[in-house]
Every structure is written in C-alpha cells, then in structure tokens.
Fold these 2 entries.
Entry 1:
Amino acid sequence: MSNATEQQEREFLAEVKEKLTLAIKRIDDAVRQFSDELREKKQYIHEHQSGMDEADMVAADQSINRMAFTGGAAVARKHKLLKLGQSPYFGRIDFINRDNERSIVYIGIYAFADQGQRTNLIYDWRAPISSMFYDFELGEASYPTPSGIVHGNIALKRQYKIRDGHLEFMIENDVNIHDDVLQKELANSSDDKMKNIVATIQRDQNAVIRNETASVMVIQGVAGSGKTSIALHRIAFLLYRFRDTIAAKDILIISPNKVFADYISNVLPELGEEHIPEMGMDELARDLLEKKYKFQTFFEQVSTLLDGKDLAFIERIRFKSSADFLSKLNQYLLYIENNYFRVSQLQVGQTLVPASFIREKFMAYHRAPILKRFPLVVKDVQSYVSLKTGQKLSGQQKTKIWEAIPRMFTFNNVLDLYTDFYRWLGKPELFKIDHRLIVEYADVFALIYFRIRLEGLTTYNHVKHLLVDEMQDYTPVHYAVLSRLFLCRKTILGDVSQTVNPYSASSAEMIEGVFPQADVIRLYRSYRSTLEITAFAQRIIPNPNIIPMERHGQEPTVTRYNNSNQELEAINQLITTFQESQNRSLGIICKTTRQAADTYDALKAPGVHLLTSESADFEEGVIVTTAHLAKGLEFDEVIVPFASADTYRTEADKQMLYIACTRAMHLLRVTYSGELTEFLSA
Ligand SMILES: Nc1ncnc2c1ncn2[C@@H]1O[C@H](COP(=O)(O)OP(=O)(O)OP(=O)(O)O)[C@@H](O)[C@H]1O
C-alpha cells in the first residue's frame, strides 16, 4: 500500500475519532440537561403535589418516565460510541453502482453518522450494503435491499485492525481475502469469554447469519466450525433486521449448562445488543413438570453411563432416544382415545343419558387434550339432563355427573398413563422409577410430552426466536416437546460427533425428520485448532469431510508415566510452564467428575479452578473439569490426563476423548500411565 494511501487512511481515522469525541460530548451535554430537567420536574411535582389532581399526576409521571427513557437511551448510545472509539471499523469497500456512483463504505460493529453532513461515516456490519464485504471480492457484486437487488462493482476492499484507537495494521484485499486477518485472529489467545467474529465472518457463515426466511434452521458443523459464534451473530442480525418486531427479551437460548451460558454471555452485548434470556434444558423440564416429579438430570445420566456398564439402563436410553419411541407414544395416545373411554349409559334422577351421547361428545372435543375433555363433557351431560327434565339440576345430581364421567376413563393421571404405556407396549421393564420416585432422564421429556398431549400446557408464546445449542444431545421426544411449546422460528445447532451420550445422539437428519420444513446447513471448515491438533483428534473419530485451517503449531504429545503420581507431578510442571507463557487458558480435561475432583485435590496449585456441574462462571487461568462440561468451551492449551486403556474403553469414553482433544486451540498434551487407550494407539 502506498504511503499516500496509508496517510489518507490515518487522516480518516483521526477525523472519525474526532467526530466520535464530539458526538460523545453532545450526548454528555444532553444527558446533563435531561437530568437537570428531570430534577426540576420532580421538584416541581413535589412542591405542587397538593394542587394536582389524578390526571395531572399521571401526566407528570408519564413525562418523567419518558425523560428517563430518553436519558437511558442516550447513555446506551454513549456506551456504543465509546466502544467505537476503541475500534471504529474493521473493513471498507468502495462500491460503484450501475449509475457510476461511488459509495465508500466503512464497516464497524455499529453505525455512526456525521450529523453535520448527514452522511454515514460507518455502516453497521448488519446493514444490507455491508453484506458485500463478506460475500464478494473485487469486481462484480450485489446486495439485497427491501426494494430489490442492487448491482455494481467493488473497486476497492480493505481490512483494518484498530485497537485502543490505534491502527495496528491494514490490508488491501486485491487477491486473496480475509485469510491473513483470520489467521491473526485465530492465533490470539483465548480468555474466559467467547469473542465476536464480525471482522472475519466467512462467506458460508454469513449466509447462515443473514438468512431471513428459514422457519427452522439446523446447523450441523464440525468441532470448531463456529456454530455457536454464528448462531449468536445470527441473533444479533435478526435483532437488527427485525428491530421493530423482535427485541432481545423475545429470544430464548436453551443452553446445556450455566458455565456455557456464562461463556457465551459476552458476544451479544459486545455487538451492542442486550442480554438474551437463557435457560437450561433441565430448567425447562423443571418448569414444565411443575415440581410434580423429581428427576435425574442429563448430567447425572451421563455420569452414570461413564461410571459403569448397566446394559439395561443403556437399553432404556437407546429405545427412548429413537424416532420409533415417539411414534409409539403417539400410537398409544390414539389408542387410549379410542379405547380407554369406556362409556355406559348414565342415570341422573329419572333421566337416562345414552352412552352414545357421551361418547359422541368426548370425540367431538378432539382438539382438547384428553384429560381436559371431561369437564366439557360433564357440562354437555348436565345440559342434556336439564333439557330433558325442563328443570335445573340439584347439587347431588351435579356431583354425580362430575364423578361419573372421569371415572369412565381408565386412568386419570399422567404418570399412571405413562406406566400403562409400557404395559401396552408389552415392555414394562423399560420404565424404571426408583423408590424415591425419581424419574430417569430418558423419561423426563416423554412425561412432559404426555402432559402436553393429555393435559395441555401453555406455550411460550412470547418467545419469537428459539436457539438450541448442542442439538445432538436431544432426542426426537425433546424436539416434539419443543415444537409444541415454541411455535416461533428456531435455530438449532450441534455436532453429532460431539455427543456425550452415544446411545441418545441425534443427527441433523433425525432432527429434519421432526422439522421437515427445516433448512439444514453443514459446516466443514474448522477454525479453532491448529492443523496438528485437528489431525490428532481425527485419529479418535475420523471425519473425511473436515477442512482444517492452515494454521500450524506444535505437534500434540502423548507421554507415558510410570504411575499416576508421576503423571500428576508432570502436570504440575506443565501448569508452571503455562503460567510463565503468553497463553491465558489451560484446560485439564478428565473423563469423570471423580477424576476431575481427585486431580484438583492432588494439584491444589494457586490459580487452579475446579469446574463442576454446579459452577456458574467460566474463569480464566487453569481449569480442571470433565469433557462433558468442557463441551462448547475452548482453551489455549489442553491437557488430557489418564488416557489409559482403563479409562477410555467404551464408545461413550471415546466420544469424551474426542471432545476433550477438540477443545485445544494451540497446544494439546495427552498423558497416561499403564497402557495407552486403544483410541490413540493406532
Ligand atoms: N469466521 C471466524 N473468524 C474468526 N474466528 C472464528 C470464525 N469462525 C469461528 N471462529 C473461532 O473458532 C472457534 C470455534 O468457534 P465456536 O465455538 O463458535 O465453534 P463451534 O462449532 O460451536 O465449536 P464446538 O462445537 O467444537 O464447540 C472460536 O474461537 C471462534 O472465535
């Protein structure tokens, strides 16, 4: 790039910064004025309160609220401008349209306009025109607008890295794009929160982020393909694109655990959006079962699986995770509707209510959940009787009808019907409920499904977009529940290779079976790990379709120690080395909760944290945890201890090992004593 060009760019940056400072000052002045006015107004009301009637008070209140709201919006705007001051923009395209008009489009996290000249100095990355930055190189380009597609040419394309207001570097994209900047971004060390990727969103990712039409979008992406990042950017995009109809509070993220929720909590605020409501699947279950049943959590189910080999337990899980299970549940519901309402004629006083009348009414309410039809049928029977007799019913007669009708149905509570389902199926052994009445995790969503179908549950109508991460962990029954409760658009993402329970994993195809209208997107490029780490993880679970980034680092190591004490000593050494390095996060990822707790106790070094299913935050530094909890997270360095044949034996263990290794961005070390697991010995 010529010196003159660079000079021009530096001048432009200085000008933008100056204008930002001015805009911030204007906001400060306005906020000061607001708060003065607000104070005066309050003072005035206070002094004149006695002379004001109800209407005056309401009007005064409203005007105060309005002022406070405007003041709040000004403060939020200032916050954004301060952020822009740190890094005003990251890209530029010069677009020449068919009328030969040139638009210079600088792109940043938010838009910023020059008030004086009424021009846009910086465009929001989500603006229609900004999409060309991600979608095109130099030459022909186009972008969609509400009034049609605009065609033209990109004459110039640049990328910038501006940090703390200083231009660190600038790249002219004449040939191959993005890669330099992307490489630099990926080489950075990771802290305790997920980062935004607006400056380097890739083309296939951009298509997912900006998709406006899909009612259900299923993203199957390999480890580190940016699924979670993309889903969050998609939310930011939708909030921008549909800002008149969707607000942050209308979105719900269903996340696997609190730590993950904490880990991703930064991305949307960084993009200028408010915090999005979030909920765990277990939390949702607790809500829907209204504390009527106690149940095993998903985390406990996985721990039980990893601890031993209870074949019957596995069999129960396997069956209840199948699409066949869902269809059997549906068949049973149809069966009881047709067979369990055993009507007989009912005598009320002198009147005989014919069985056919009662059945006909029961069937006529086919839109209502079965257990909710009885009160409706009762009302009809009452009307029938009073019409026949020409008299009002006595209290006794009413009671008789209220008791008799529900009794015609074989069962009238959900748990009894659910138990009966297994009898009907001829497999009563598939339902186990322990003496403390704790329901197994595999039954939880089936029970909820029964509640929905038999009793009806209110839907989450206020939610306008649902985001479900780690889709592979949920079964057809989960999705049947979600689709009945959330009638809104959905983004569902995950990776079938990263399941923590191989007996209940769902693929994109299976989810497509539940949502036939879904757009299914597959992502194969992996960004997180160095090529060496990705190649290493491929030895555990090969995926010929994965496309690793051309980013190199140290070859992962597999080291044997004579015993676990020596192994722990070596890990202690590695922690010291890490603490002296530039890297900011180190994950020591074990298979089981017990191993993680023991390792943590044995290490007891300062700055080492234990992450459990109870933890709420993801802390920077050294973290000891399990593969299950580390799923979705990433670390600069990862140590996978105890990788012996004893620890990693089963299919479930293999998955855990894969998840553990794919958490590493730059450095991976595997340690063991005894014999190495067969999953790594090939
Ligand atoms: N376009 C991109 N530019 C810069 N970094 C990216 C890009 N896409 C992904 N990344 C980075 O790759 C890493 C993995 O992203 P993310 O965690 O979203 O992937 P994922 O597919 O959800 O991973 P996993 O399923 O393995 O948990 C993150 O560090 C993210 O910042």
Entry 2:
Amino acid sequence: MSNIQHNNEVLVKVEGLSKKFCKDLKTSLWYGVKDLVTGIRGGSKDQSLRAKEFWAVKDINFELRRGECLGLIGHNGAGKSTLLKILNGLINPDEGKVTIKGRVGALIELGAGFNPILSGRENIYNNGAILGFSRKEIDSKLETIIAFAELEEFIDMPVQHYSSGMKVRLGFAVAAQMEPDVLIIDEVLAVGDLGFVLKCFKTIDNILPHTAIIFVSHSMPMVSRMCNQIVLMDKGKAKFQGQDVSKAIDLYYNEFTSNNSSDVVFTDNTVELVEASIEGKSKTNNVYKVKWGESIILKFKIKVANLSSIPFVTLAVYDKEQRGVAEMFPSGQNSDLSIVSNEITYAIELKNLYLSKGFYNITFTASEQFGSNAYFKIHKALTIQIDHEKQIWTAFLLDSKVIGLNN
Ligand SMILES: Nc1ncnc2c1ncn2[C@@H]1O[C@H](COP(=O)(O)OP(=O)(O)OP(=O)(O)O)[C@@H](O)[C@H]1O
C-alpha cells in the first residue's frame, strides 16, 4: 500500500520543464558527443538552441493534487507525448524539474514497459516489482489484473505476439490495478475496443478520488468528461492552461476551424447551391450566431439545369468532431415552390433549436425525391454557433422545468 494519505497534497509538480530535439540525426549525434566532452571537462550543457534544434517542450509548469485530472491537449506534434515521457522518467529534460510523490502507473506507448519475449504473466511480475510490490503482493493482484485485461487464455503467451488491443489491455490493467498515486495515460487507450474503453473509464472514475491523473487525448468529449484542468500545448509551450476546461476545448477546436471553405461531396451538375443564409441574421467569419432555443428560418437558393420537377431537400447537422447529431426532411416541399429563372429558394423553418452550445455545420442535399439518389450534396453549406452559458457535451440541451413537487 502507498504510504501517502492526505487528500489534497500535491503529487506532481512540474517547474520550467523544457526539452529540445534536433531535426537531423547526424547533427544530433554530433551535439551529443560535444555535450559529453563538455560534461567530462566539467562545463555545463549549452541551453540555447543550436542549428537544427527546436523546443519540443518549452517552459511547462503545473501542479497536480490527488483527486485531480489534468488533460494535455494539442495538435499532432505539440509535445504532449514528450512531456509524458519526461514525467515517466523515460527521457531527461534539458531544463526544469519534475517532482512526483508516490507510485506512478503509466500507459504511454504501445508495449512500452513490457519485455516482448516474456509472457504477459511474467511481465506483470516484472512491472509489479518495478513499482515496489513484493511477489506475494503481486500474487494477490494477479488474477484481478488478468481478469480485467480479459487475457485469461493468452496470459502465458509472449507479449510480442499480442495484438495492439491486447497490449493496451495488459498495460492499462497493470497501471490501474497496482494502486498508483499518479496515473499517466496517453492516447493509446483509444486502441482498445469500445467495451474495454468503457471499462477503463469506469476504473478511472473509481480510482480518481485517490489518484492524480494526467490524460493525453484528442477526444474532447473524453477530456471534458474526465479532466478538471487543462494544458493546451502548441509547439511545446502552454498556449492556455487552467480550470476552464470548456475555454481550453474551444481554443483547441479553433485551431482547426480556420478553413471555412464548403465542401461539395457530390454533384451531377443539375443543381448548384448559390446562396445559404439564415433569415434576418448576418454572419461573422462565415458563422451565424443563434441563441439556444431560438426559432430560425434557413434559406437555400439553388440553380437548376435541365430539371422539370422541384428537388427534394434534406439537411443534416454535424458537430465539430463530424458526428451527425440530427437530420431534417422538411415537410411541405413541392407545394409552394416554383422554378423562377432556373432558380428555387427554399425557406425552411426550424423551431426551437435546442442544440447545446457550440458550432455545427449543416449538410445540404438535393435529390429527385425523398430517398432517391442525390443530384447534389454539400457539407458546411451553413455553419451556426449556438449561444448558451452552459457548455455540455451531449448534442442537445432540452428545455425543461419543474412544474410541480410532491404532486
Ligand atoms: N526522439 C526524438 N527526436 C527528435 N524529435 C523528436 C523525438 N521525439 C519527438 N520528437 C519531435 O518532438 C515534437 C513533439 O512530439 P510529441 O510526440 O511529443 O508530440 P505529441 O503532441 O505527442 O503529438 P501526437 O498528438 O501526434 O501524439 C515533434 O515535432 C516530434 O517530431
């Protein structure tokens, strides 16, 4: 058992942490030799950037207490994994200091921490010993770990023959079941199948009250579900950090939304979308702001060529992660519409928009009739931003109120 008892103590303290890498292997080896010679002569390492070097992690600071979960987010190459490797002692920083109290469980790289030629069972004993458990203590945990990883059949097979998912199962089972004070989890968790990922989240919920967790992920719903503080990394630096998780997630998404061009998915050249707007609203940076619960009228003007009948329009709503959240098959089509100078304008009423806060793209499709092949389909025909003070991660925030108590 860990000897750390207090609830709010700082378990991880990171001060001015920096790590530089070299973009070129030959130069990197040459710098390594130079640093070694300088070290032998008693000199100190050159802390400035030399040619072809860059900061993969630069001046990162944070404190993490028991019961807290820090989300490390940022685009590919931002420096998240490098930071985790420094925290786990796999690589040394060039500057700064890491202080960690207690036992560290880590799931960083696929298969990292396992000896590939040893069996799953032998690896559990090895890892347990590294974490300071006696053989007897590991004996008592063994069955739980194997059962959690669901590897009963394969536990005596060398780890090198495990599938990616099996390695992650074993890695997480060992890291989480060995009573860690600090748990470090990289994106690799996502390699597990849905059943296992759900099981991991349940375990994380259970151990969080007595553990400090550092979690790297590109899945913002997962981050918002688990984390109570965030470091958003960009080119090694903390671009934002703090407890305002929704603000950090907004900033993260904004890094990817600069491209506002719409995407035509399909066209047979009989239909072209010439205008898409929301009645009575103007757009800023291609985005229409709509209040939560508001009723709006969407307007789509299309130009048709060689069509005698009015196309049937369907709409789909996608969130920022491209998950479909709603579809619309507007009723009343064909009745009042007419083709004027080869153009048709659809005014579509959308009542009480209870989508939760955030950005949504609308996909517009025109077909001969409901259910038939599309003439034309375009993503991001319209982008809307729903305004509400509450940031939630389900697609809808429904309008509800108590109308009676105790009958
Ligand atoms: N051993 C290394 N030698 C040289 N450069 C490295 C090394 N390891 C990482 N890098 C570089 O450091 C930068 C940060 O990489 P890192 O893996 O930490 O990013 P990340 O934020 O984890 O990215 P991802 O989201 O893709 O996992 C990248 O430019 C990467 O190429």
